[in-house]
Amino acid sequence: MRQFFYDPAVPPDTNIVEQAISPITVFRKNSNWKSPISYMEELCMLYSVYMTAKKTASAMFTDG
After folding, report:
1. All residues at 6 or more sequence positions from 10 whose CB lies less than 8 Å from its CB, including other chains
2. pLDDT > 90 fraction of the chain, expressed in percent and rounded
3. Which helix (H) or strand (E) holds 10?
4. Rounded to 5 degrees, what angle do the CA atoms 38, 21, 17 make?
5. 0.85 cut: is pTM over it?
6. Chain-centre distance for alpha carbon 48
7. 39 CA to centre of own chain
8. Which of 14, 34, 41, 55 is such that its CA lies 20 to 30 A from the CA of 8?
9. Radius of gyration over alpha carbons of the chain, in Å?
């Protein structure tokens, strides 16, 4: 909890995490939990792959 005092790279809040999981949370809320758990697990895996590819491609194009 106090790690951000010792490491300036650690933010004092969880805003970055909350923004990252927001699309999945909104989807889950809109589906009213009617989707089977296996579907939600697959959706989370696909979202993880998508975000990883997005960040990797972003870094790939910004590195000189």
Report:
1. 3, 4
2. 0
3. none
4. 135
5. no
6. 7
7. 18
8. 55
9. 16
